[in-house]
Each structure stands twice: as C-alpha cells, then as structure tokens.
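sanity check this record:
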Amino acid sequence: MNLEVQETGPVERKLRIEIPTAEVDSAFDGAYRKLGKRARIRGFRPGKVPRSVLEKYYREEARGEVLQRLVQESLPRAVKEAELAPIGEPRLEPPDNPSEGEPFSYEVTLEIRPTIELKQVRGLSAKRPELPTPEQDLVESHLEELRVTHSQLLEEPEGTSAARGHFAVIDYDATVDGQPFEGGSGREATVELGGGRSLPGLEDQLAGMVVGQEREFELALPEDDPNSPVAGKTASFKAKLVDLKRRELPKLDDEFAKDVSEFETLEALRADLERRVEEGRKAEEKRLTREAVIDALIEANPFPVPEGLVTRQLTSRIQRTASQLQNQIPQEQLGKMIASWREEWRPHAERDVRLALLVPEIAKAEDVQVSDEDVDEHLRRVAEEKGGTLTALKRTYREQGLLDALEGGLLEERVVEFLISQATLSDT
C-alpha cells in the first residue's frame, strides 16, 4: 500500500491511499467466490457457476463489494501508519470502482485530535460573580405566589363596574373588513383586568362595564404573527360581560401555612423559604463562578478545534431540545426555531468541545482521577432518589453504554472543581 499524507488544516489531514494490483485482484477473487455461492443462474448448479458467467451478470456488484472491502481493510492500516488520532467519521471522496488488473487509489479526509499545549491551568484569573439584589423580597414574593395559587374567585355583587383587579368573563365576536376570522370569537373567556396578558387595549375597553352590558369597539391586532392573514389589521369587536369576579386571597397566618405546606406555623414556612432562597442564590453563584473559570481556562489555552466535533455537539443539543418541544408547538414554528438555534448555539457548542478536549489533558497533568468507587457512589445516590438499587441501575447504564459517559462527566466536574480551587477570583 502506498500512502501520501497532506496537511490541509491544523486539525485536518487528507490521505491518498493506493492499493497494489495483486491486492485488488485478490479482493475480486474473494468477491466472486462469495457471489458464486449464492448466484442462481439457469443451467448451472449453485456454487458451480463459471467465473466468466459471474463476471457477465455480477460485474458491477462485484466491483462495489471490492470497493467496500478495500476501503474497510486499508483505511485503518493507513491511519495507523500515518500515526494519526482521527476524530469522527472520515470523509471519503467518491472514487471510481476498482477494476481487475489495475491498482486502486482513493482519497479520504480526516479530522484529527488537536495537539494541546497547556499554558496555564493553575492561578486562572476570573471575576467573582455578583448576583443582583432582587427588586422584591424573594421570600415575600414566594408567599404572595402561594396566596395567589390558593386564592378563590368570587362573584361580585350585581351592578359592580369592572375595574383593575377584576376577572371579566365575556362573550365576544370580532370581524376584519366585515368578515369573521380564526380565533376572532369566544364564549365565557376570562380576562384579568390589569393583568397585561390579553390583546392590547382589550382590558381598557372592558373597564366600567357591568354584567349584562354589551359594548362595541375596535382594536389593532398584533403584527408579530406572520401566519395570520389578519395580522396588523384593525378588528371590530362586540363584547358582552357575562360575569364579573374578584380574587380573594387567603390570610397569611398559621392556618395558611398548614394548608400549603407541611409546616405548622407561618414562621416555620417563612424560615424554610429563606433557606431555599439562600441555597438557590449560592447554587447560582457557584454556577456563575464555574462559567467564569471555564472561560478563563479556554482563553488561556487556545488550540484549533475540529469543526466536525462542534457540528456534532450542536446537532445533538438541537435534537434533544427539539424532541422535548415537538409535541408542544407547531412544526413550522419549531423549524424556524431550529434554524435560529444553529447560529445562536454554535459558540456554546464550540465552548463545550474545547472543555471536553482540555479535561483529559488537565486530568493527566494534575493527576485528577475518577475511581470505580466514585462512579458507584454517584449511581448509588441516583438509585436512592429513584427508589431503585445500585446493582440494577449500574446494569442499566452498562447495557445502554452509558458508564463511559458518566465517568467522563464526573471527571469533568472534578477537573473544574480543581480549577476553581486554584483560580484567583477578584471583585474587579
């Protein structure tokens, strides 16, 4: 086998592989023997068809099989001989099918693992994250949300005028240029006055109405729906107020705490919420610190990234997200979202790839390890949370080929923890 290696980029190599005639002819002999065993040609017994007859009927099929065999056998040898560490699938430039009595050559492009020179791992400089001060007390906000969730809607007395804070139940019909349109009518639709979640202007038009009253008005329809034929047009509405309700919030006392939680007193509920808020802020601070140190690591240790790895990482992320949303939003809308993700998420995908390539290098240089016991301990915690056993969960991970990925994820977390412990965090 003759081999030529061309450097076509910092992490890309093109191989030109030539296979000698003798090896090509041997591959043809094997292909025709295989074809002869299953060929069914009138006048010949199975396995007794002459080579010349097989060539007449199966020449192109034999050439295709020889092509596949030659590439499959020669490419690994060529990669080993060239001392390359390929990443991902090779890109084979479509060759002509081989012919008997002639050498066969083809070209293939490989992305290779980049050579990474660690320039700085310890003492990375990063800005200490500063969480913004909440505009509202988060504990009181949570309590208010609980009150709203457990509130009741009560009917207002007859003759009450609709005002901010009310829930107006309406029947309505709307037309554009005298014609009804999809979504332009409804019965017993609830509109929260002052909620800001309705068609712009609708809540103002309902203000002051009493139950049984009808009102006609015009409203501009939103322009941000390109699939609606009436987007941006003015609609004529006829609305009737059929019911008017107010929200009654429960009192914030010990009885409320008992109703909405496992706590006996409001003081205990408030203390639990304070703990949860503090834990949440600490977790967010830890996440932001992690991101800042990773950014500093990547900036301090540049290297060329295989584009194929970035594309595969991006595709995987998009597929996971799309599968979660495919039954929740229309396919046309999902398609537009995917198109925007391909551009928006590419920097994140490249960042993930850079970190994944740096982790094993750092782990080797700094002797950061993940043991079998570490893996078992992680699986044990997961099993306890799901109510299963370590043995069963580990068997599932092994059968699904997930153990290596789990170990890699644990190693990444351990390496990042090491980086944070060695980093210099400043407030400026």
The chain has a mean pLDDT of 93. The longest helix spans residues 266-300.
